[in-house]
Each structure stands twice: as C-alpha cells, then as structure tokens.
Amino acid sequence: VWRLNWLADRSERGWKQSLSMMVNYRYYSFDRIDRNSIDYIDKQKIQIDEQVSKLL
C-alpha cells in the first residue's frame, strides 16, 4: 500500500464499503512483487509506504 486517499469515493456505496477511502499501490520490480506475494500468502504481511506507516 503506497497511499491512502480520504474522501476518494463519496458515493453512498463508497461510504458503506470503505468510509469513502481508497488506496494506491506502488509496483516494483517483478522480483519484489513475487516476494511480497509470498509474504502475504505465508505471513499475511503486506508492504506499506512510510507515509502510511506513520498513520498507524
């Protein structure tokens, strides 16, 4: 997850599904994508950007 977008989908459906938030993903080299996929499958771990980490 690279970035969180507040009020990105202000439709009724957007509010019900995600409180109007949407995310952007940053894609890296294919080697890193494979590693990230394995980490998610094995450990339920996702890569997040520093700006997202600061929000947690």
From TrEMBL:
GO terms for cellular component: mitochondrial matrix; peroxisomal matrix. One of its GO terms (biological process) is malonyl-CoA catabolic process. Signal peptide: none annotated. Residues 1-27 form the Malonyl-CoA decarboxylase C-terminal domain. It comes from Rotaria magnacalcarata. InterPro entries: Malonyl_CoA_deC (IPR038917), Malonyl_CoA_deC_C (IPR007956), Malonyl_CoA_deC_C_sf (IPR042303). PANTHER family: MALONYL-COA DECARBOXYLASE, MITOCHONDRIAL (PTHR28641:SF1), PTHR28641. This is Malonyl-CoA decarboxylase C-terminal domain-containing protein. GO terms for molecular function: malonyl-CoA decarboxylase activity. It comes from the Eukaryota. The lineage of its organism: Eukaryota, Metazoa, Spiralia, Gnathifera, Rotifera. It holds the Pfam family MCD.
